[in-house]
Amino acid sequence: MLEPTGHHVLIEPDKVDEKTKGGIYLPETARKQEQNATVTGVIIAVGKQAWMGFGDSEPWAAVGDRVYFAKYGGVVITNEGKDYRLVNDEDVVAIIKEDTQ
SS3 of 89, please? Predict the structure, then answer.
């Protein structure tokens, strides 16, 4: 498993569908481009210094949280056949809260 260092956050981006809502299959190149533009995902791991330099030093998000992150932010890393995004802590811009009603 990958372990982020410093103030980095490792995110597994949401997967892009293989076909459109109308049933048209997308070519691999189009899916890759769309995947790189994805802005939501799940936090997999957090560096030890993440969010430490922002006043109260309380983490904004934790492992397992679904979050929005900066479009095209960070670096795409492929490990064991899966794509991840390694972003700076400040690139995590919102936590997605699930509606419990």
Answer: helix
Q: Which amino acid is at 38?
A: T
How many Cβ atoms are within 10 Å of 71's Cβ, its own excluded?
Answer: 11
State which fold the 8-95 domain adopts: 10 Kd Chaperonin, Protein Cpn10; Chain O (2.30.33)
User: Which letter does DSSP use for residue 15 in this model?
Assistant: P
| Six token digits for residue 100 | 């419990």
pTM: 0.80
Within the chain, residue ranges assigned H as helices are 28-36
Which amino acid makes up residue 23?
A: G
Contact 42, 34 (CB under 8 A): no
Taking the C-alpha atoms of residue 65 and residue 68, their distance in angstroms, rounded to an integer, is: 10
Q: What is the pLDDT of residues 18-45, one digit of tens each?
A: 888 888 888 888 878 777 777 999 999 9
